[in-house]
Amino acid sequence: MTGDDASVNGATANKAGPDGTAVSGPRGHAAFITVGAALVLGFLGVFFAWPVVAILRLGLGSGLGAVLTAPETWRIVAFTLGQAAASTVLAIVAGMPLAYLLARVPVPGKALLRALITVPFVLPTLVVGMAFRALLGTAEPNAWAIVLANAFFNVAVVARTVSGLWTQLDPRATDAARSLGAGPFRAFRTVTLPALRPALWSAAAVVFLFCSTSFGVVLVLGGGRYRTLETEIYLRTVRLLDLSGAAALSLLQFAAVLAALAVAAVARGRRENVLALRRSRAAVRRPSGVEWVPVGCGVVVLGALAAPIVALLVRSVNARGGWSLAGYRALSGTGGVLDVSGWQAAWNSLRTATDATWMSLLLGVLACLVLTSLRSRWAAELMDAALMLPLGVSAVTVGFGYLVTLHVLPGDLRTSPLLVPFAQALVITPLVIRTILPVLRSVDRRVRAAAATLGAGPWRIRREVDLPLAGRAVVTAAGFGFVVALGEFGATGFLARPEAPTLPVAISTLLSRPGELNTQMAYAACALLMLVTAGAVLVIETLRSDSSGEF
């Protein structure tokens, strides 16, 4: 919290509220932080730290040294980092023209443009893998397909993060450089690009994190030949029951995640400082001359983003014998490979995603309120980093940890229908926080000061000032959380019961069985999941009023 916020809370110490009762500002502020932080960190401890530590303790045995010294381990590490770095570079190159379109070009229907850019990011990774398989027309393992698919998945992170800062940059600095004789590219390189550097580093760190922990894409396109740490952890845990090997690989993955989170935290702090200094939005204008070059590049990138999606839709109705809706018709039946119909699996997905969304909203909003209330910057950064950790720890590790720990709690949550939503909530809570927190931090402190002067305590200020002003961001976070939970597969694939599979689990089951009809059903299920996701994103972008959040 800033000094002004502290003085606001302190100013209420000896004032009376509207009902005549005394309001204790510092005491109420401390109680708010204590209770809120206890609830947030308690949930994180029980449903994340405890299961992960339990798995590590089970697995870290005599085989640890053998795993860490095996050449195969380091080949997997090298491929994980190499494909993540290549995908990150490609995502930045492709995302920059889109960021320019969003920030500086008066595009009609910009909400639709944002939706088109965002759909790949919220698509289930299994769907992305299947879309590229359909685009390439082959099921052969392909390392470059993994790189392309991961870049496709993360272009939206670059475009949205960079455009959020680019929109706030004062164009007069670039105009001054142009008036002094700099060409458009030199003005961009020497003026605009350095100003965008915090957003670029932030986006690069997040994209690298997502690519290094990619699961569904590598599972579908790697074919067992190309493996990352995430897929290897899954293989050793689920199929080989090699807990020692999985734990050792989890430690390596955790180290890479911490490094990426550290870079992201530093870059995010610099980005928020830049945004705090620039409140006016830069005017958009029609491009002229060479400014049409990035516009043309942006159009090409949009076409490239649409190609896998179109290929998936076409493949879902195109069997070997010609055009057919057999896959869609088969989804309505039962028996065979699936224990339930495809529509029942879709209903299971909707139900679990809804539960995961309200859980993550409660946790994420409370975490954001606590983070904006902490007086210590270092305490806020540490808590923020802790809340981001579930993004980088294998969901398989968390899911398996649930099975070996949660029976200790009353009611044995391992048999509860809320088990899968708990795991999904851990995955989407960081996205909720990254969407809402920048908006809360941008609230004018004078509004809080006025409320405190009128006698409102910290709880009431948060409830009646902060939350209404961040209302659209909360709705956006709920929408994004829902669509991400809808397609979550890592933990869900491990925890979902056979009689209640979600749609991604059903897709994975269909892909693992031979037969043209099974393949058609998988593509049909992917197409349905993609259409639902695209519709939800379009609604979200229509409701969204700003791009203050990071996603």
Descriptive account of the structure:
This protein has 551 residues and is an all-alpha fold. The chain has 2 domains: 30-57 and 332-544, MetI-like fold (Orthogonal Bundle); 61-272 and 289-315, MetI-like fold (Orthogonal Bundle), CATH 1.10.3720.10. The chain contains 24 helices and 4 strands. A two-stranded antiparallel ribbon has the order 1-2. It has a two-stranded antiparallel ribbon with strand order 3-4. A hairpin with a 2-residue loop joins strand 3 (318-319) and strand 4. Helix 2 (25-59) packs across helix 17, helix 6 (125-136) crosses helix 7 and helix 6 packs across helix 24 (516-543). It is globular. 49% of the residues are buried.
Describe this protein with a few key phrases.
single chain; 551 residues; mainly alpha; MetI-like fold; 2 domains; two-stranded antiparallel ribbon; two-stranded antiparallel sheet; 4 strands; globular; disordered N terminus
**What is the strand tally?**
4
Structural class: mainly alpha
Count of helical regions: 24
Approximate strand percentage: under 5%
What is the CA-atom radius of gyration, in angstroms? 24 Å
- Helices and strands, in order, run as HEEHHHHHHHHHHHHEEHHHHHHHHHHH
* CATH architecture annotation of the largest domain: Orthogonal Bundle
Instruction: List segments where confidence is low: pLDDT < 50 over at least 5 consecutive residues.
Output: 1-25
The oligomeric state of the chains shown is single chain
Percent helix among the residues?
A: over 70%
* Head-to-tail CA distance between termini: 24 Å
